[in-house]
Request: fold
Amino acid sequence: MKIVIACDSFKGSLSAVEAGQSLADGIHRMDPKAVTDILPAADGGEGTVEAFLYARKGRRCAVEVQDPLGRPVVAEFALLDDGTAVIEMAAASGLPLLKGEERNPMRATTYGTGQLMKAALEAGCRKMILGLGGSATNDGGMGMARALGAVFLDRKGRPLEAGGGSLGELARIDLSGLDPAISRVPVIAAGDVTNPLCGSNGASVVYGPQKGADRDMIRILDRNLKHFAEVAAEQTGRDVLDTPGAGAAGGLGAGLLLFCDAAMESGIKMLLDAVEFDQRIRDADLVFTGEGQTDGQSVCGKVPTGVAERVKRQKQIPVIAFAGSIGTGAEAVYSCGVDALFSIAPGPVTLEMAMLHGRELLRDTAERVMRFYRAVKTQG
Reply:
């Protein structure tokens, strides 16, 4: 029996590699002869760099950049042997870099992400993949563009302060100092959301609360992003207001479209292509996948549904998903090709305990699933 394991990280508990190995350990408890093929997966968020380096030859590059509040932090990107740079914006501008009380999308900036991009250009990259998951920001990519040389000015010709709270004062964008190298390198924005920039389904309304925005801040941020898009459209000729994916990462998707001529692509699709997923499932009997929390948003380009849809286009074999927790609307994943979904929680347990013992919980659940699968196959 061959089982392909394509699992996302269980954030705060297990990396994608560790989660895959835990599932493999559970499988081998039940069937020591089973062949397991571990493919760490990611959708553009945390673990994207690790997953690409697992699948392709390359090296890690460490750079000191600014975190979302302008403090120094060391972040890494991957430079693959073919010249592709893989960057996680969350490494420089992500929520995990902030304490809960520090979250403030009015001030948070993507400047550090732009610094990573500049470092990749200086390292000689010939292509850039930018993962958009896990952002702490809502600045429309202004910080990113500033790090690459753009200047954002108010009506009096003064540079805007960092963060989404100042975008309402934008009067002019000076792109004369933008690093010309960014125009020579294809940029791919890899993400799992298709949200537009503004409105009820836009960046501020949907994702602002998790970044620390209250109701009044959300209203201001949404209005500011709309103003930003209107000014940018006048000066660049590019209208990104309603472009799907422009709202990704607090509007960083819009900034990449405007200032880097980026292409928007599904993060999980790119990763599965990179690991030659279709070829590796040809002789598989089962596919295991998983993520930290499965809920209604998991159908929006997340790893389990991305994996399941890819499998079912090739062959009809069971796709089993594992989740640290199962939230509202999780049943929607069944319509995307997931055949069964299992929580790894053994009963009432605190989040801290579940995360601390994630390795064992995932392993034990995989073993129970394999026992059930063998019983059904035997009786059949």
Remarks:
- The longest helix spans residues 215-236.
- The chain has a mean pLDDT of 93.
